[in-house]
């Protein structure tokens, strides 16, 4: 069975990641995000988008003070919070932890660093 891959527009990538369209264009110009061109139209293949997200989510590459948004996978969040991945997926599905899906499947969740920080702060304040 051949699975159809999706093509994203710059606007869709911007909305999914939570950065401006001009920042997405900057990532394209810096060759951090691969694109395909058809005339003036620019599209991002699903595989290239996922590769880009995985590079964003690579905790080893995160440097403090870096202005680019950081995205974590559910597996990385599970490690950080010392929870099972199933518990993290449950938190995401119920909305207690904010994230978004890049495609169907369990390991397709991405959690912005800001959302993780908010979740942790909320949990800490509830314990007081």
Uncertain runs: 59-66
Mean pLDDT: 80
What is the tally of helical segments?
A: 6
Q: CATH topology of the largest domain, what is it called?
A: Multidrug-efflux Transporter Regulator, Chain: A, Domain 2
Question: How many domain modules?
Answer: 2
User: What is the count of β-strands?
Assistant: 6
> Helix fraction?
40-55%
Outline the structure in words.
The chain has 2 domains: 1-56, Molybdopterin biosynthesis moea protein, domain 2, CATH 3.90.105; 64-128, Multidrug-efflux Transporter Regulator, Chain: A, Domain 2, CATH 1.10.1660. It is 47% helix and 15% strand. The chain is built from 6 helices and 6 strands; from the N terminus they run βααββαβααββα. The strands form 2 sheets. It has a 3-stranded antiparallel sheet with strand order 1-3-2. It has a 3-stranded antiparallel sheet with strand order 4-6-5. A hairpin with a 7-residue loop joins strand 5 (100-101) and strand 6.
Quick summary of this structure?
47% of the residues lie in helices and 15% in strands.
Sum up the structure in keywords:
Molybdopterin biosynthesis moea protein, domain 2; 6 strands; 2 domains; 128 residues; 6 helices; alpha+beta; single chain; 47% helix; Multidrug-efflux Transporter Regulator, Chain: A, Domain 2
Secondary structure: elements and pairs:
Elements: E1 7-8, H1 10-17, H2 21-29, E2 36-38, E3 41-45, H3 46-56, E4 71-73, H4 74-81, H5 85-93, E5 100-101, E6 109-112, H6 113-127
Antiparallel strand pairs: 1-3, 2-3, 4-6, 5-6
Helix pairs in contact: 1-2, 4-5
